[in-house]
């Protein structure tokens, strides 16, 4: 699968920087307001989003979706974390994890390229824990409350972009995607 241009559908400049760094590509950023299917399956959400983005743009697209599953809540909010953050904020998500009595969490990412006929998927995950209060000023979204098990107790927001992108759930998904692309 070769691309003259690949459009990355995101409104988040942090995701764009991370994705370009991992893939080693310059991507065309497209900030599209797309209806997002509601599902607890992060891959289903990313696949649906890729189809909608392709229909809107008519060019090959890359989309990714992330999920933060709290083990004490059976994996909730999962891909719905964006909406929970909008409603309750980062501190609210910390309180929710504390109220569930289990700080363990799994961050997942599904990255999908869709060109109208062919799909390439990459997936990655990182185990970690949710802190009782946010820490750090780097990153975006829920980076200040998620401490991956490999991070020596630090959150993604306490790491440099290079350190975070060395092993994050998004990086693992993008590396999986890159590997699958090279196999084609």
Q: How are the SSEs placed, and which strands pair?
A:
Elements: E1 7-9, H1 13-23, E2 28-30, H2 42-57, E3 61-70, E4 77-78, H3 81-100, E5 104-114, E6 119-130, E7 146-148, H4 161-167, H5 169-182
Parallel strand pairs: 1-2, 1-3
Antiparallel strand pairs: 3-4, 3-5, 5-6, 6-7
Helix pairs in contact: 1-5
Give a short summary of the structure.
With 184 residues, the chain is of the alpha/beta class. It is built from 5 helices and 7 strands.
Please work out how many helical segments DSSP would assign.
5
Radius of gyration: 16 Å
How many distinct beta strands?
Answer: 7
Q: Sheet bearing the most strands, described?
A: 7 strands, mixed
The helix/strand class is: alpha/beta
Low-confidence stretches: none
Query: Which percent range fits the helix content?
Result: 25-40%
Distance between the termini: 6 Å
What percent of residues are in strands?
15-25%
Multimeric status of the protein: single chain
User: Might you state the CATH topology name?
Assistant: Maf protein
Order of helices and strands: EHEHEEHEEEHH
CATH-level-2 architecture = Alpha-Beta Complex
Number of domains: 1
CATH class: Alpha Beta
The general outline is globular
Q: Characteristics of this structure?
A:
184 residues, alpha/beta, Maf protein, seven-stranded mixed β-sheet, globular
Tell me what the structure shows.
- The chain has five helices and seven strands, in the order βαβαββαβββαα.
- By secondary structure, it is of the alpha/beta class.
- The protein has one domain: Maf protein, CATH 3.90.950.
- Strands 1, 2, 3, 4, 5, 6 and 7 form a seven-stranded mixed sheet that branches.
- Helix 1 crosses helix 5.
- The chain starts with 6 loop residues before the first strand and ends with a helix.
- The model has no long low-confidence stretch (mean pLDDT 92).
């Amino acid at each position: 699968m070769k691309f003259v241009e690949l459009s990355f559908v995101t409104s988040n400049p942090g995701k764009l920087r991370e994705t370009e760094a991992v893939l080693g590509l310059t991507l065309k950023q497209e900030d599209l307001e797309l209806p997002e299917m509601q599902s607890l399956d992060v891959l289903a959400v990313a696949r649906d989003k890729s189809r909608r983005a392709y229909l809107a743009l008519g060019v090959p697209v890359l989309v990714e979706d992330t999920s933060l599953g709290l083990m004490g809540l059976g994996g909730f909010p999962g891909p719905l974390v964006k909406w929970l953050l909008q409603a309750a904020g980062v501190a609210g998500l910390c309180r929710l994890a504390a109220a569930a009595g289990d700080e363990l969490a799994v961050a997942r990412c599904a990255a999908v390229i869709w060109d109208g006929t062919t799909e390439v998927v990459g997936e990655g995950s990182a185990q970690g824990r949710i802190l009782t209060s946010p820490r750090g000023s780097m990153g975006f979204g829920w980076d200040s409350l998620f401490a991956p098990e490999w991070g020596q107790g630090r959150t993604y927001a306490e790491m440099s972009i290079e350190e975070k992108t060395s092993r994050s759930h998004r990086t693992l998904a993008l590396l999986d995607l890159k590997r699958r692309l090279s196999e084609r």
